[in-house]
Design brief:
Structural class: alpha+beta
Strand content: 35-45%
Shape: globular
Strand order of the largest sheet: 3-2-1-4
Radius of gyration: 10 Å
Order of helices and strands: EEEHE
Helix content: 10-25%
Distance between the termini: 20 Å
Length: about 60
């Protein structure tokens, strides 16, 4: 499943990413590079699907 995410905020050294397809999902990461894995982990926790089930696309 593809998740299009956007940076909702960037403060205190963390990025907060939100997924368009899952408005309840919120993931936090220290760097832009860490966002896809953080989103996959959060999506897995919310849905019960394995993390590798999700493809993450960051929209700027």
């Amino acid at each position: 499943m593809q998740l299009n995410v956007y940076i909702a905020s960037a403060s205190d050294g963390f990025y907060t990413a939100k997924a368009v397809q899952m408005p309840e999902l919120s993931a936090h990461a220290r760097t832009l590079e860490e966002i896809p894995e953080a989103v996959r982990s959060a999506a897995a926790a919310v849905t019960g699907q394995p993390a590798n089930f999700f493809d993450v696309v960051i929209d700027f």
